[in-house]
Every structure is written in structure tokens, then in C-alpha cells.
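Why does residue order matter? Because the sequence determines the fold. Keep that principle in mind as you read this record.
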Amino acid sequence: MQIDSYTSPDAEALLLVGEERLGRKRRRSREIATNGIGAASFLAAAVLLAAIAPWQRPFSISSTVLVLAVWVLVERVKFPVAGGWTHPAMLVFVPALFVLPTPIVPLIAMLALLLRRAPDLLQGRARPGMVLPLIADAWFTLGPALVIVLTGTQRFAWSHWPVYALALVAQVLVDMTGSITWSWIGEGINPRVQLPLLTWVYVVDAILAPLGLLIAAAAVNRPALVLLALSPTAMLVLFARERKQRLDDTLALST
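Structure:
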């Protein structure tokens, strides 16, 4: 199967999974248990990292609020992929690793994901059960944060680029393992079908990561420059709409 191709019946069925998940009033018990394990394990790992890892950068309330605000806006850009969605989070995640104390970034990511859906949850447009998968969705942040903490490279420097490349690899491995495992156990999705489609996500992350590093280099001493992430985000809104329309057309033709 080609990357990002939903031309096979299995891939089209996988695309329907994401749409049906939003419409279900009740979640399956196995899905709830899987999401619960994913959320609990992420919380345990993220809290442990924040508690025991050294902070090489002081905590700043203003910088944290700014990163959260930009992250929430970036999360509004949604690309359907495989049985779920992805977002151009690299534009704010990478700068956050250096603008904020690196060990707390996974928890900040989780908070941004929850804040993004908070209005829907409070107004009843989203079910409370969505909280668990939202928390589990932050797993991708743990790999890069751990690599940077263990190598002692929390202060940004271009000379650390091999570490940053290793952090990207760690992100892909952690996210791929989690996504495939949770989907396989929770919803019975065949990894053979899901993996080629997820590859599209990691190609996009790899493309956006250098831009995230450029924003980090500018924002490390001037945190307000994290706002630079909003410029490419605005452009990606157009691509997200086009992709959603194309995949909706694919499902319509299949039906």
C-alpha cells in the first residue's frame, strides 16, 4: 500500500473507524480499558519525569501560558489519518522543549490537549470518556523529552543536532508502538493496515521538525517568538480542509 492511500477496502474501513468513534454514544469496555491503561501509564511516566529529572531552565508562568495558548490553537488543525487524526504539533512541541523546563513538557502537552477539548466537554458536545484517549495522545512527547534529559541537552544549541535527530526517532518509535498497540488491543485494528497510513504522520513530523527547531532557536531567549508557529499553522488549515474533503469523497464514493 502506498503512504496515505485509502484505496483498499481495509484502509477505507480503518478510515471509517475514526468517524464512527465520534458518533458512538457508548464506548466499548475493551476500548475504555485500553484508553485507561494508556492514560494511567502516561501520567505515571510524565509525573515521574517531571519529579526526578533536573530542570536546566527555570519555570516561567508567562512562558507556560504562552506555549499553552499557541499549542491549543495548533491543535485546532486536524488531519484525518489511519483510524484517528494528527495535528502539526511539532511547530510548538519542539520550541516548548527548550522554552520551558524539558521534564514538564509532556504534562504541558497533556494539558494543552485537554484545554483544546474543554469547551466541547463542558457544553456536552464531547463525552467525558474522551478524556482518557486525550491524555494517552500525549505519549508521543515522552520519547523526545527523555532523550534530551538523559543527554543533558536541555539548553538549545545547534551543535546538539544529533541529539535532536535521536529525539525525533524516539518520538516516532514511542508513538508508533503506542498507536498500533492501543488500536490493536482496543479495537482489533490490524497493524499491517494501520502502519503504512501512520507513516504519513511521521513523514509530516519529520518535515515540520526543522521548522520547529528554527522557532526554538528564536524563542529560547524571547519566548514570545513561539507565536511564529501560528504563521505556518494558518497555511496548514487550508491543507487540512482539502485533505478532509478528499477523504470524505473517498468514503462517499465507496458507499
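Strands lie at 79-81, 84-86.
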